[in-house]
Amino acid sequence: MLNRPNPGSKWLEKNVRNPQTIRLTVCVSLPDGRLCTDVREGDASVSEMSDMPENETPENEMPENETPEDEMPEKKMAMLDWDAMYRAGTPPWDAGCPSREFMSVIESVPIRPCTTLELGCGSGANAVYLARRRFEVTAVDGSPLALERARLRAEQSNALLRFVLADVFDFGRHAGRFEFVYDVGFYHFVRQNELGRFLDLLWWVTQPGSYYLTLAGSTGETNEGGPPQVSEEEIRDELGRLFEVVQIRPFRFESPRRADGYLGWSCLMRRPTIGNSTASA
Hints:
alpha/beta, seven-stranded mixed β-sheet, 8 helices, 10 strands, 27% helix
């Protein structure tokens, strides 16, 4: 069974890519009872290393001569430099405004204000939209430039929310549980190489009764430049391992590169609770 970290606990991890540095993670309890983690990096020679019990292997330390999974050739080929794509201009997925389909789902279901996590928030349009509707939003992304734009957007919109610069998988492991988790384009990319890891992440950050919404590229789109494609059958098979379907419907992604956008699936799911099912077509 996976255990949630206790308030006040801390742990050290060696940086696999740079053995000369470590990361110190401290788990603290917020006034509302939720947990929050603070991660700091430093030189591996500092005295904080003494906090690690003797003979304990750091969680992220790899055995000698073993290649870290995310440095394997096939994984390197699959990964993108997200920050470079923002430096080059406006990425094809960034329409500069909240997704119309995203807003439609929030308002029509409806999903009430609650603790919310966005996986891969980009420049923050959807996160800011929710924050202005009184959702308690934590938005995570690995691109410093994207988050710089997101923070500016939030400031200009007078929206209060939390942005976190971190690897989504690393953050999710110790982030606690949320009542609503969503992504606009993260699932359809990461499923290509790390579906199992992504499902583990969703298990960590949701709880029975939590909603999960993803907007994903749909098979059948013939125009070039669109998002990775996934079929309805694949969605039900992959995400159905953890969630029950509330609704799946087609829509079109907005894109600055194509007026008509790209074909996609809007998938709202819910983690089952014992003795209660809300599944539908």
